[in-house]
Protein 1
Amino acid sequence: MPTLYLIRHGQASFGADDYDKLSAIGHEQSEVLGQWFAAEGITPDLVAHGTLRRQKETLAGILRGMGLEMQPEELPGLNEYDFGNLLKAKYAAGGEPEGMMTDHKSHFRTLRTTVAEWQRDEIPNPPEMWAEFTGRVDAAVTALMREGVETVFAVSSGGAIAQAVSALLETPGVHQTKMQLQMKNTAVTRFIYTPRSIYFHAFNETPHITAANSDRLLTYA
């Protein structure tokens, strides 16, 4: 059956001046995933990413690992929400927690509370409304599951992939955040689809990360 593989980007550059690029580990994760797809005989008919650099670099690494050259579609709807500017909107008057963009624990604790407020439309002047975010993600995912295409690889981000799953399962927003916070870098989530139905088939899989390489390749940011 036709399958959409939603792939989270590889490890980005957390704490750096420019987060939106893969670390050395992120590049390796991407190529190793591509090698796994090739070994399994899974070849895409369509590949896509958002407009973010870390998504583009991840797809390039996957294709390199597979020994393929393909022209990807670029769908802005696959982009992550702008957490940095969401924080600026929330803390426009100051009072932001220390280390929220450099310390992992502070970052994810702040993310949980901030996104919950955003989902309730409690943050003034956010970079986009929660409904706008969910709408663009849903539209991008729907556009990818088209007739005549059997296998789709789409590189996105944790929040967007979690939203796609949450929408399919019709869960409250709090579960979107819970899914996002457990998502691994280069993890694969699968939807199977027909012209009439969409089925949730797998979430957050990393078959390319094994006991032999997990100490190096298992990351979350």
Note: The two ends are 32 Å apart (CA to CA).
Protein 2
Amino acid sequence: MKDENVIVDHGVSGISMKLKERDQGKRLFDLLQAGDTLLVRWVGRLGRDYEDVKKVIEDFNTKGITVRTVINGMTFEADHNLSDPTMKAARAAILAFMAALAEATSKKEARQAGIAHALASPDADWKYRGKKPSYTRETFDLVQTMLAQGGRTVSGIAREARVARQTVLRIRDKSDACEATLQRWGM
């Protein structure tokens, strides 16, 4: 039976600091040795951005440590002595893709955490209002009027109101939500 250590690092995908700077990250670097396998939920847990994730995985691999991800089952083997240049290129491409995807995911998680925090803060001077609408009160009223009159296509209304076709469809199909958005933004 093999020894297993579980290191739990809470937070948003390492977006605020490098793995080596986090308490559990330091512990991880101290514990892992050549021949070990690091099992992570997702590569985004290993760094703040594309370069950081890529460097951490390459550092582990150089030290003889294999990195495996749970979510997509990727394995980055510790063996850097691959003699086949095609295999080296494929490995580098997969690592680059996974690191870039991790950066995008980390940013999305950080944004969602910020929104959740803003919504949960009762004493905040401001509240999260959502994305600013792409239409004004005047445009909303104009589109509503044209829709009620009938006889025009959605594309025709969009041209006349100088908004995207999707905006007309949103106003038509979700007018209550559009009205609420305008009110939240004080429009």
Note: The chain has two domains: 19-120, 137-184.
Protein 3
Amino acid sequence: MRKALIVFNLCSICFLAVNCSSKNDENKAPSVVQLEFPTKDLLCIDHTIPFNWSDATDLENDVIEYNIIIAKDRELTDVVENRTVSASELTVILEKSTAYYWQVKAIDVDNNQESNSEVFSFYTKGDGVTNYAPFMADLQMPENNGNVAAGTVNLVWEASDIDAADTLTYELFFGEDATLTSIDNTLTVKSYIVSVLSGKTYSWQVNVTDNAGAKSIGQVFTFTVD
């Protein structure tokens, strides 16, 4: 009996050692890169843009590649460039007088792990342009496809404009499911409280207009009420 207990204990120790080892050996995703150029909300004088970002690190010293996505919307769905490179830089020729959004994903090639950077916006300068449309609203709370408690929800967004002296106003759309209704088109604050019911799904959108009448159409976010 004693011999059997010893064998059992040894097996248990070996199992725990292997289990702990497997947890310690779990592959980690590479570090998140920092976007360096174009900087956030930059007005680029030239439309030939030398994108660059910091190098990622990997705890296992796996090979790292970088996937850069450049799009015309903050959700990165209207993509104009999607490339995977081994260096932390890439030069791209883009359209003039256009707002762009970009992100870099560091990819652990050996173990298929990845990490996303922030999304930065920038504007390419046009010929003879004196006023630029504001950037798309950055919807912050609630998160897209997130869950909230019933009662009241504070819709929160951010917005910016290359023309720093411009005054921005916001048009808020809100409604159940995919049905959006204009709530207010003269908002000057970047938040709005709405009432929501349990079990419902809601959508919302914010358009941004500057004092010259230039408008950017916002993305649509949805959330569900518990």
Note: Residues 2-24 form the longest helix (23 residues).
